[in-house]
TrEMBL record:
Keywords: ATP-binding, Kinase, Magnesium, Metal-binding, Nucleotide-binding, Thiamine biosynthesis, Transferase. One of its GO terms (cellular component) is cytoplasm. The lineage of its organism: Eukaryota, Fungi, Dikarya, Basidiomycota, Agaricomycotina. It catalyses: 5-(2-hydroxyethyl)-4-methylthiazole + ATP = 4-methyl-5-(2-phosphooxyethyl)-thiazole + ADP + H(+); 4-methyl-5-(2-phosphooxyethyl)-thiazole + 4-amino-2-methyl-5-(diphosphooxymethyl)pyrimidine + H(+) = thiamine phosphate + diphosphate; 2-(2-carboxy-4-methylthiazol-5-yl)ethyl phosphate + 4-amino-2-methyl-5-(diphosphooxymethyl)pyrimidine + 2 H(+) = thiamine phosphate + CO2 + diphosphate; 2-[(2R,5Z)-2-carboxy-4-methylthiazol-5(2H)-ylidene]ethyl phosphate + 4-amino-2-methyl-5-(diphosphooxymethyl)pyrimidine + 2 H(+) = thiamine phosphate + CO2 + diphosphate. In the N-terminal section; belongs to the thiamine-phosphate synthase family. The keyword Kinase applies. The keyword Metal-binding applies. This is TMP-TENI-domain-containing protein. Residues 9-201 form the Thiamine phosphate synthase/TenI domain. One of its GO terms (molecular function) is thiamine-phosphate diphosphorylase activity.
Length: 528
């Protein structure tokens, strides 16, 4: 009978990474105490006698904790120590040959870097796949491309209904484990069974603590994913409730005046800061990487708008810190389809941190989704837009694991389950520069309101270990869009507005005078 393995925390050994003075077996023992659920002995330079000795002693330790032992590559060692399994690389012994040589029930795992590797692994009947490298790593000289967090979901999808288990490997550590687990879930809801780690545990002076942090994160996340999948079946949003909740967010913003950190483009800095102030929040425009950590502690939300990319390092760091603090992160990939540099920067940012909301016009979101249906012209969209915007936002939200806001004369918002259609706004918004950027600011401000509400409701968050962001970001996105578009309608009707020049200050006025009542009474909202 094959043994059922818990893959939650898969330690791959790395003797060469031990801190000075740390004994290998002591480190393994502490890692097991910290919650490692599988150990793979990986020795790339040891001779056979040494490998055998290490494998035997590691097995003794593993047995004490009832944790299975896997041997990397060497079938002879696996046979000699009666290991629970072997792990094979793409250039190691073929799985079919290994199966013949090993006793029935031996676990076989294979390293996979792309969908073809995964398909082969399925047809060869392996027990699990190790997907990597997901982040960069200094532990191994990589011969295959780095997959990136966002690339893993497509491989997991191949495993749907196969029963095969999957772990990800490569650069995973306590600080990015939740981001890795959250961001790798496939569009079908297929998540990782665990994470495989070398340096974060082996290189630590306190491997017990390093392992415990990782294990707790994986356990909390797996439970949360189950709840998320369950909730997606039962979810129902009533229009009245959405509007009541959104109104509360505006009150929260006015009451707490959250700091909205904006890394934005130099065309719109002043008007975005003024829009933030008009809603009752407090803007700070800061781009230097050196100040990102300090800002993450006080901020209510972060907006990353890359209309003019001058501070990629700052954007990367600010987002990572916002994720660590579980604060809202709104990403506005302005003109992402316009140049290769923007495309690769967006991919790098989105692989590094988890956006809470991505907002863009049809051209931008088409570029992000690799869709040919809509073309972009610089920072603007050309053509008539998506034939089925509701399905588009829903599937992109599932892919990016966040809220998607598709702007235009109608705005479409989705969290991957529900789709919300908003029909407020005025054509003059399209005739002033930076209305899309101001919308990003308004969304970030309402997301800060949603974050504050979550903190208010649950001051000491029990869910915080598995929560990627605190607060209902769908409501934040709806609130931000309604605020700007309703203000634009009221502004455009004013007798003192004679064109786009007078429209703009009137728009700021109407954001300033926005009330929960106006939001609920004027909203043109449909929940699909
Ligand atoms: N013709 C229009 N009618 C109503 N609202 C509009 C119109 N054009 C743009 N908007 C509003 O302006 C905001 C910015 O959207 P958009 O113009 O698509 O962004 P961008 O400036 O990034 O291209 C959105 O909230 C949208 O609802
Ligand atoms: C063995 C292996 N396979 C792909 S990346 C990697 C090394 C992962 O090491 P670390 O967890 O230290 O990045």
């Amino acid at each position: 009978m094959r043994r059922e393995i818990d893959f939650s925390l898969y330690l791959v050994t790395g003797r060469e990474l031990l801190p000075p003075g740390k004994d290998y077996f002591e480190s393994i023992q502490e890692s097991l105490e910290g919650g490692v659920t599988v150990v793979q002995v990986r020795e790339k330079t040891a001779d056979t006698a040494e490998f055998l000795d290490i494998a035997l002693k590691t097995k003794e330790l593993c047995q004490k904790y009832d944790v299975p032992l896997i041997i990397n590559d060497r079938l002879d060692i696996a046979l000699a120590v009666k290991a629970d399994g072997v792990h094979l690389g793409q250039t190691d012994m073929p799985v079919s040959v290994a199966r013949q040589l090993l006793p029935a029930g031996t676990i076989i795992g294979v390293s996979c870097n792309n969908a073809d590797h995964v398909k082969n692994a399925i047809s060869e009947g392996v027990d699990y796949v190790g997907i990597g490298a997901v982040w960069g790593t200094a532990t191994k000289k990589l011969t295959s491309p780095i997959i990136g967090v966002r690339g893993v979901g497509a491989l997991l999808r191949e495993l749907d209904n196969t029963g095969l288990k999957a772990v990800a490997i490569g650069g995973i550590k306590g600080a990015n484990a939740l981001r890795t687990l959250h961001g790798t879930v496939s569009t079908t809801g297929h998540g990782l069974d665990g994470v495989a780690v070398v340096s974060d545990i082996a290189g630590s002076t306190k491997p017990r603590d390093a392992a415990r942090t990782l294990r707790d994160t994986v356990s909390a996340f797996k439970e949360q994913l189950q709840n998320e999948l369950q909730a997606s079946i039962n979810v129902s949003y009533a229009k009245k409730d959405v509007l009541t909740s959104v109104s509360k967010l505006l009150n929260n913003v006015k009451a707490y005046k959250p700091l909205i950190h904006q890394i934005t483009n130099n065309v719109v800095t002043t008007q975005s800061a003024n829009a933030t102030l008009a809603l009752g929040a407090s803007p700070i425009m800061a781009t230097a990487p050196e100040e990102m950590k300090d800002l993450s502690r006080v901020l209510g939300a972060l907006l990353v708008n890359f209309g003019t990319i001058t501070s990629k390092e700052g954007m990367l760091l600010a987002g990572q810190f916002a994720n660590e603090e579980k604060k809202p992160l709104v990403f506005d990939p302005v003109g992402v389809g316009a140049t290769d540099f923007r495309r690769t920067t967006a991919a790098q940012l989105l692989n590094t941190w988890q956006a809470s909301v991505i907002k863009g016009n049809a051209g931008e979101l088409a570029a992000l989704a690799d869709s040919k249906e809509v073309q972009a012209k610089g920072v603007d969209t050309s053509g008539t837009g998506f034939s089925d915007p509701a399905s588009f936002v829903k599937s992109l939200a599932r892919k990016e694991r966040c809220i998607i806001v598709l702007t235009g004369s109608t705005d479409w918002i989705s969290d991957g389950n529900v789709v919300i259609r908003l029909d407020n706004g005025h054509p003059m918004l399209g005739d002033i520069t930076g209305s899309g950027c101001m919308l990003g600011t308004c969304i970030a401000t309402f997301c800060a309101g949603a974050y504050l509400k979550a903190v208010e409701d649950e001051p000491i968050s029990e869910r915080s270990l598995s929560t990627i962001v605190r607060g209902d970001m769908l409501l934040g996105a709806v609130g931000g869009v309604l605020a700007l578009t309703i203000a634009s309608e009221i502004a455009a009707q004013r007798v003192d507005v004679r064109g786009t020049g007078t429209f703009f200050p009137a728009l700021i006025d109407e954001l300033y005078h926005l009330t929960p009542d106006k939001l609920t009474q004027l909203a043109k909202i449909q929940i699909l």
